[in-house]
Structures are given as structure tokens and as C-alpha cells.
Amino acid sequence: MTEKTEATGKLCVIWSSGDPDVAEKLVFMYTRNAKLRGWWEQVRLVVWGPSAKLLSDDPNLREQIGAVSQAGVELQACKACSDMYGVSDDLAALGIEVKYMGQPLTEMLKSDWVMLTF
Which of 41, 42, 98, 101 has its CB 3.0 to 4.6 Å from that of 78, i.e. a possible disulfide? Predict the structure, then answer.
């Protein structure tokens, strides 16, 4: 199998799991590598639901999300979810764009984005 050299398409990863292993060993690893290795032209990671609280509470994951961002992955979080957990300001301080995600998610689903959920 040959490695793809030209990135194509748009990938949106919805991270909703409250499990730190899912974050570290799946979500962060895949999104970072997908961008660095050019598997996708555009990679977006959306923090949704329990993952918002987990990210706010876990210092190791907060450190790792910085490497994901530095790789060029777009970071967004659902404001309604993060407000429910009281962590919107914490996520914004990590450089995550915190906004209401219902309409943006619907637009991505109706367009040419590939969606992956963890």
C-alpha cells in the first residue's frame, strides 16, 4: 500500500466520549496524523458532550490538544454542551472555538464533509 501524497477532502471528527483512552489513543492520534500526513486537506475536531468536561478536567489531555492544534487541526466545541458542564471558558482558553454547533454540524452533514464519531 502506498501512502497518499496529496490531501483531498474535508474530515470532521465528532469527539463525544468521556473516556480518556478514546481521546488519547484514537481521537487525538488520528486527527493529528491525518493533518500532518496529508490524508485530508482539512481536519476539524469538534468537542461535544462529555468530552468537553473530560478535556477541561484532564491536564494530560489539555496538553495533548495543543499538539493537535499545532498540527493544523481546527478545534471547535459545542457551546450548549460546554455551558451545561460549566467549561466554556476553559475550552476557549485552550484555543478552541466555542460556538453553538447545531447549524454548523447540519451544514457539514449536508455538504462534502466526511464525518467520523468517537
Answer: 101
3: left (phi over 0), alpha (psi -120 to 50) or beta: beta
Domain regions of the chain by residue span: 17-117
- As a whole number of angstroms, the distance between CA 108 and CA 104 comes to 6
CATH match for 17-117 among 3.90.76.10, 1.10.10.60, 1.20.5.440, 3.40.1260.10: 3.40.1260.10
- pLDDT value of position 77: 98
Q: What's the average model confidence in pLDDT over 68-93?
A: 98
pTM for the model: 0.91
